[in-house]
Amino acid sequence: MKIALGVSGGIAAYKAAEIVRLLQDRGIRVQVVMTRAAQEFVRPLTFAALSGEKVITDLFGSDESQANVESAIEHIAIAQSIDALLVAPATADVIAKFAQGIANDFLSTLYLATTASVVVAPAMNVNMWNHAATQANLDILRKRGVRIVDPGSGYLACGMTGAGRLAENETIVAAALEALGASQDLAGETLLITAGPTREKIDPVRYLTNRSSGRMGYAIAEAALRRGARVLLVSGPTAINPPSAAELIRVETADEMRDAVLKLLPESSIVIKSAAVADFRVANLADEKIKRKGAMTLELEPTTDILAELVRHKKPWQIVIGFAAETDNVLENARKKLAAKSLDAIVANDVSREGVGFDSDRNAVTIISHDEVVEVPETSKWEVAQRVLDQVVKLRKRSAVSSR
Description:
The protein is α/β, with parallel strands linked by helices. It contains 14 helices and 19 strands. The strands form five sheets. Strands 12-11-8-13-16-17-18-19 form an eight-stranded mixed beta sheet, sandwiched between helices.
């Protein structure tokens, strides 16, 4: 999918750079369109570097040599190629142009030329926001179906306090995703998703853990929410914010994750176990901090195999998908795990590869079910999440057919 991001002239223009990144994390191409005033706050090169796309700054090109037929009709080509137009920040001037049908720069002309969904996130001085003319223009846009992401209130760059501050980036991106018409093919499903690492205590100040950041599981949770599912998210300790609409259960140890998963299993229709659960814990936990006295040996014992226990308790109508983080013989080991634990599918990834998997926003996986193998080459974890959920939908359709 592709979004045109309109950036107009306000102090909040710098925040659009983060919006570009958030949209890209979700697998969306972004082409930035800047007004002349916006270029006084952020240089076009910034957005070109971030988006990897040409930044549009002028309707007819910046000089006579560029004022050709191609640039003159570029707004039509872009208008036809985008799935949504997002303007953030949107000044009072841009809002007025949109409402009154004035087309005297690329962004306002693009608005008139596109039939894609339009999202506008205003940012301006509180008095400008409250002015009757601005509110009347916003009403016009709302009646046309334009989504308005209302600004927040607080201290403004002009020194005043009140409404007019650009909404939070995540809120703006969520509105853009809704405008894209994300599929609701998981509506009515309850997904139980595990994410992140677990920690097994050694003594009161030390623990055993692994490199999992939770990003993959959190991406699946957010993607499932966008596709209409109810999400139960059981998360080990992470440093990232979970999707706000997910029902979050925080745990620390493998035993705590096991208890939470088995408790929630009866109300779940689909389980995706993406957490990196510790395989071992310390057999004899020290009550006091262990002093350093040279070499030390820890006696370890295996933790509960949550996935195997979960499958033993699942009902025939429930779907269970596991993850296999491997460093060698990735596909062979994943297939063994798929069969040994009677899973519906397994997501295998090579965690020895640099730049993907643990501690990264990117991943490359192979999704294996009993009758299909799907290769997902290196991409964002958001896109991997979508591909995993695509397989969930396929499995659900197959189970519906077989039960007839």
